[in-house]
Amino acid sequence: MAVRELATFAVLPNESKGRAYNEDQSNYRNEFQRDRDRIIHSSAFRRLEYKTQVFVNHEGDMFRTRLTHSIEVGQIGRTIARALDVNEDLTEAICLAHDLGHTPFGHAGQDALNNCMKDFGGFEHNLQSLRIVDLLEERYADFPGLNLTYETREGILKHCSQKNALGLGELGQRFIKKNKPSLEAQIANIADEIAYNNHDIDDGLRANLLNIDSLRESKFVESNYREVVKKWKDLNERQIRHEIVRRMIDYIVSDLIETSKDLIGKYKPASVDSIRECGKSLIKMSQTTEKEHNNLKKILRKNLYQHEQVNLMSQRATETVKYLFNIYMEQPIFLTDELHMKITKDSRIKDEQRKARIIADYIAGMTDRFALSEYKRISENK
Is the pTM of this model over 0.85? Predict the structure, then answer.
């Protein structure tokens, strides 16, 4: 079987900018395959199984979690990368790692933790993902974190303020210079959006928080719904739902690939550096598809994310995260023995900001059900 030749602007593993700590190369895997495998074997990746996508993990076994979402993002990302002749392995590694820093309870948990940390540097899940792979994972004898390549770390860091970028060395320069990341990173970013919107429709319908009629405000949903019910007369509700979502993803991904091919052909990037210095994202949907995609986001925001039941879950999440943060700050004895000792005995922990960051790391690493059990344990024994 012939080896697929990548485009001149693809990131090649043998041209990687390397790792923070030098390592011998693997005999059987390239650098980005190695990154992917380290991510899959990490504790943070396993914990995603019990972290909220939209619905709290224990609400039902059939809803998506951060883990299943990440796997689905990886599948979409690989398809796009393969069609555009860029590096599939790097794209997959970024896709699988993009949510490692997410708190329990999804965006509600992140917002609550960010609010708790407002006087201590704030909290943002992209930066937390980088913090996990650079520092917090403790698996290897020779280095902290996972020691991933520069290119994978570049893709993980989707957003970053100028202030935070200043402390990230070469990795932060893109945000200071307003450059773009590699095409592989751009693909992972948009694959996340595609998976998020379409699979939230599936889960929202499954939970009876959405109905097809309310979603038919979207031209995407309406046109695909008509096609499905016209072609198959006897489908059950589950099959109709799946066919609509499947067709929407296929349409959006196909549109994205063709539009991106046109943009790449227009700008004719000759290298990875020319992609970074282009100043424009070259992985894009057509204007018509992007407009409908954004309209779908608005419909989901109104009918799902602001639904009374979701709001109740969000309120409980906010209460749980704030309670845990405040009680740990006031009474570190409720932390694990290791963290309690680190905060109370370690001479380096001299200020509240370092203490708060240690506690934020701990809370961010919790699963939904562990955070709820901690809340119950502490509130009942306080």
Answer: yes
